[in-house]
Design goal:
This protein is α+β, with helices and mostly antiparallel strands and 150 residues long. The chain has a domain of 99 residues: START domain (Alpha-D-Glucose-1,6-Bisphosphate, Chain A, domain 4). It contains 2 helices and 7 strands; from the N terminus they run βαββββββα. It is globular and about 45 Å long. It comes from Saccharomonospora marina XMU15.
Length: 150
Amino acid sequence: MSDLVASVEVAAPAGTTWLALTDWNQQGRWMLGTEVRVVSGNGRSVGSRIEAFTAVAGIGVKDQMEITSWEPPVRCTMRHLGSVVRGTGAFHVQAKGPQRSVFIWSEHLTPPFGILGRLGWPVVRPVFALGLRHSMRNFARFAESYVVGE
């Protein structure tokens, strides 16, 4: 298993940050190379399923997830169900006053492809982490100007 954690300060109230974060259909506006959609349930309850497709130069990976914990406006946890992306992930929002919050994204992943994946993870991890940090900065800008239903 491999753990990744990233956080970003957001100049928006925690409730706004939460709404922006869990607006699944809009995640492509801030998540690097990724399109996201709800495929089962309402996307706002345990058992709902979310699908993300991340691609670089036309080559991509589908990530199928199920919400395992839904605690608005604080925490959402997911289980990755795919053959390539496996493990758990969590989005956490912490209030830092009336107009500020912190978004924390954590992943506990099992590299695919057995021993080859475990050996290759130290090479892939820095690139993955770089993309994650880039997406987090994008998210902060997205959340700071977020309008519900846009």
